[in-house]
Design goal:
The protein has 196 residues and is of the alpha+beta class. It is built from five helices and five strands; from the N terminus they run E-E-E-E-E-H-H-H-H-H. 39% of the residues lie in helices and 18% in strands. The two termini are 38 Å apart. The protein binds zinc ion. Zinc ion binds next to loops.
Length: 196
């Protein structure tokens, strides 16, 4: 998605900061932005925070302690997706960018369920049953079984149990789904259909 470059007034020079912009996806070195601080907790020094402007798209990113908001959405765009799958995939990725990892995993699971049901599985099963179904249908390459085992070990829980997820959990699940989406939707849409 192309972003319209923003204009700002009163921009200040800041310490240079190199980061990957969560809006345009470019790795940039920014020297534009605003310095600030978070008031100290008891007897602790002020914590510096900054708002940096990306020199490419001029969108602002907040940097706190170990925090970048918005962060970079993991995964890549996949072509040939139906609109509802595309929206849910984007939402899962954007949840990670917003540090909402449990939300990302929940979106990812809903996505896996819709993909499996679209491929002929029954609604109402648990998350791992859908992963198994897709693997058994041949949508996971032979050397990708490690993924399925990994997800089985992560997803060893009841259907509706929700536990807090970490960023690596969310990123791994999104990487797995990106691979599935490419196999199921993107590659077939790029191969010319042979007529007998
Ligand atoms: Zn940018």
């Amino acid at each position: 998605m192309a972003l319209t470059r923003l204009n700002w007034s009163g921009v200040q020079q800041s310490q240079p900061r190199v980061y990957k912009c969560g809006y345009c996806g470019k790795v940039v070195s920014s020297i534009l932005g605003w310095q600030g601080s978070k008031p100290p907790d008891q007897n602790q020094p002020d914590v510096p925070v900054t708002l940096q402007l990306c020199p490419n798209c001029m969108y602002p990113t907040f940097f706190g302690v170990d925090q970048q908001i918005p962060d970079v959405a993991p995964g890549e765009e996949v072509q040939g997706l139906p609109a509802d799958v595309e929206n849910l995939y984007r939402e899962a990725r954007n949840c990670v960018a917003a540090s909402a990892y449990t939300g990302a995993v929940l979106c990812a699971r809903k996505l896996l369920m819709s993909i499996a049901v679209a491929q002929g599985d029954q609604p109402g099963k648990n998350f791992f049953e859908y992963v198994e179904f897709l693997a058994n249908k041949g949508f996971v390459p032979p050397n990708g079984r490690g993924w399925v085992d990994h997800i089985r070990s992560k997803g060893n829980e009841a259907t509706h149990e929700i536990r807090m997820m970490s960023r690596p959990d969310a990123e791994q699940l999104i990487t797995f789904i990106e691979m599935l989406l490419k196999f199921i939707y993107e590659f077939p849409s790029r191969v010319p259909i042979k007529t007998p």
